[in-house]
Amino acid sequence: MLSDFKCLHALIIVRDGVESNDDQELPSSFGELIHLRCLDISGIRIKCLPDSIGELYHLQTFRASYVLEKMPNTTKHLTSLRHLHIPQIELPPEIGRLISLRTLPYFVVGDEKGCGIGELGSLKNLRGELDNYNLEKVHSKEEAESANLSQKQDIVQLMLRWSTENREGENCDESVLEGLQPHPNLRILRIGGFSGKRFPSWFSNLSGLNNLTMIMIARCKECEQVPTLGHLPNLKSILLRGLDNVQTIGSLFYGIDDNCSSTSSNRVSKTVFPALVRLELQGMPKLTEWLEAELPSAVDNQELVAFPRLEYLEVHGCEQLMSVPSHFPCLKELNIIALDSELPFTSICGIKLNSLTELQIYSIDGLTCLPDWLLSNNQNLRKLAISYCNNLTHLVPRLEGAGVSLRDLFIYNCPKLRELPDDLHSLNALEKLNITGCPNLETIPYPHEMMESSLESLTLKGLTNLRNMEMVIGWYCSNKMPRLSTLILDVPMMNMITTNSSSLSEITAGSSSSGHDSSLRYLSIDSTRCDEYSNSFVDAILKASTKSLNILSLAGNNCDDQSSGYLPDQIQHLTALSKLFLHDLGNIQEFPEWFGNNNSFSSSLQLLHINNCKKLRHLPSKEAMLHLTKLSYLAVGRCPLLNLKKIREISDDDDSEWPKISHIPEVYEDGNQIPTHAQ
């Protein structure tokens, strides 16, 4: 058939619409399409190509899918090929004969003849992106230079990667990297697995990488110094990751030496990292000091400016770090993670810092509180997240008007946190408040109406000593949180009761008399105790959310107390409820009669998920289940006494609940789909 299309210039093969995982083959007669310029087989599953592909001497573009495993050795004859789009597989030998190539996304150095780095030398027209793998198989600077990377002016994105497996003893990585100097037009450079101790001289060449905008150096475990980068005028992003042996970041990084003096009698300004916007230091376990950028003491007619445009800084996994620079005039986002000492954090957040908009603090053992000036100086701070700071006892004593722009406040797993600022109510723009895993926190300061009106999401979980939970619930039930759409509570209810015995009745009365239109869409309550207070609070919240609540998740603790089988009656009045999740209701044996018999609830529920209710034997009656007219998805997990097996005609299984669910389109038990009539 192919003989009828010998003049074809472009061929795109797509699947016939029938899903199949079967592999397909191209006929050897493909070589007859000698006029073909473009061949695209990315739409079909082809693992291997026939040798006759090498006869397509005019082919300019070839594209294959991820299934392709091998290119034939005859590929070297495709001398007109310009664009090669294939998955990362072993390239055929003598790829260097394809002198017209412009697009070669990667090159894997091999040991076989015709697979060395020198194959790149003749590919003078390469452009765009080039990723190089297995550079440990390059053995000298001269061999590396044979790739002629320094002459490939159209390569703008380059990756140089060494394998880190089974590499012990001496290596020649330093000389190889010296020979892989790229063209000055390069914009993005990634280096991975390099095992040299120092980076090559071309990093510090004043004009060698002037167009570079982004550099990533990762998993270079033997490096003892970071490269010189401060002089690069267009560098916007730096990521240094996994430099295990680096102990100090200092003058070499900035590109400052003793030759900085100026012949001018006037004071001259010198800027390092003039365009840098993003800087990340990750996984540098031996790093102890990151020094300030300073001119040599002999220079007295210059002033130094460092990081004038830096907006994002991340310091992650530098456990021994003790000192960092303190001047970041434009810093907006700071992520500081997994440090032993609080000193780097307090240094970065010095008294002069006033530009922060987002701050994330994670696992800083030495941190007991925030700097007093942090919030007051950074009036544009929108997000503050503090997690796993084991010794944090408080944020700041008082906000005193600070934090006026704060929208998100997250505090996770700070076991010694005792108190929040007394004037938390001054956060009048706060939209999300999440406090989780702080067992020593006893109270949440009563909010001012301004904060109440802005709050959209409230999460209080793992606060085992919180004493004023009934107050929080009262705020909502009394319509003092009109914008609240998400409420997540996970606390032991008995501990939340203050000495005010009238609190419960006031909350219940407030929820029944307020008559307000709630905005609450998602409610999750995990009660770690089973008691009348817990049940009453749940009822009060549900009563205040009758017309708005869309998703409800209720969890108990599988205790043997009779109340652990309690399913709130108020659920039947939730007219907008579409998804209901029930977990760990240890004493529930069957659903109440009202489940499925109420028109408003029955006509809205679409998904029901029941999990770990170990005594549950019966679903609602078949009639009640049929009243759930929109229920299309039922999932049951870890309910060993609930029998959902399909009743066969030849059996008589009176205990099976299958007839009650046979009309539901999707039913799952412990992750396995159960066949129903609706499928």
Features:
alpha/beta; Leucine-rich repeat, LRR (right-handed beta-alpha superhelix); 22-stranded mixed β-sheet; four-stranded parallel β-sheet; flat
Q: Strand-residue fraction?
A: 15-25%
How many individual β-strands? 30
Radius of gyration: 33 Å
Termini gap: 43 Å
Question: What's the tally of helices?
Answer: 12
Tell me the helix content: 10-25%
Q: What kind of sheet is the major sheet?
A: 22 strands, mixed
Q: What structural class results from the helix and strand content?
A: alpha/beta
What would the principal axes of the Cα set say about the shape? flat
Query: Mean pLDDT across all residues, rounded?
Result: 87
Catalogue the unreliable spans: 261-265, 498-502
Descriptive account of the structure:
Helix 7 (469-477) packs parallel to helix 8, helix 7 (469-477) runs parallel beside helix 9 and helix 8 (503-513) runs parallel beside helix 9. The strands form four sheets. The protein has a 22-stranded mixed β-sheet, with no helix packed on it. Among the domains are: 1-89, Leucine-rich repeat, LRR (right-handed beta-alpha superhelix); 550-679, no CATH class. It has twelve helices and 30 strands. Strand 7, helix 2 and strand 8 (188-192) form a beta-alpha-beta unit. The longest helix is centred in the C-terminal third of the chain and has 12 residues, at 532-543. The protein is flat, with a radius of gyration of 33 Å. With 679 residues, the chain is α/β, with parallel strands linked by helices.
